[in-house]
Amino acid sequence: MRIDLDQDRCVASGQCVLAAPDAFDQREEDGIAVLLVEEPPAGAEEDVRQAATVCPALAIRLAE
Ligand code: SF4
């Protein structure tokens, strides 16, 4: 799985960090999400799917 994060769409809600803290963090200055890994480790994929589902800005796309 590859994660594509569109920071231009991100509204800094933090939902992705709550759902998948191993894959997402937020910039301190404005809360915009940043990717920690482009390919989540085994075991984190379900969390990343959940993050993409709950993102209110549809800023997270996944390529399986
Ligand atoms: S859930 Fe979406 S809008 Fe919220 S911080 Fe993450 S990428 Fe940004």
From TrEMBL:
<comment type="function">
    <text>Ferredoxins are iron-sulfur proteins that transfer electrons in a wide variety of metabolic reactions.</text>
</comment>
<feature type="domain" description="4Fe-4S ferredoxin-type">
    <location>
        <begin position="1"/>
        <end position="29"/>
    </location>
</feature>
<dbReference type="InterPro" id="IPR051269">
    <property type="entry name" value="Fe-S_cluster_ET"/>
</dbReference>
<dbReference type="Pfam" id="PF13459">
    <property type="entry name" value="Fer4_15"/>
</dbReference>
<keyword id="KW-0408">Iron</keyword>
<dbReference type="InterPro" id="IPR001080">
    <property type="entry name" value="3Fe4S_ferredoxin"/>
</dbReference>
<protein>
    <recommendedName>
        <fullName>Ferredoxin</fullName>
    </recommendedName>
</protein>
<dbReference type="InterPro" id="IPR017896">
    <property type="entry name" value="4Fe4S_Fe-S-bd"/>
</dbReference>
<keyword id="KW-0003">3Fe-4S</keyword>
<keyword id="KW-0249">Electron transport</keyword>
<keyword id="KW-0411">Iron-sulfur</keyword>
<keyword id="KW-0479">Metal-binding</keyword>
<keyword id="KW-0813">Transport</keyword>
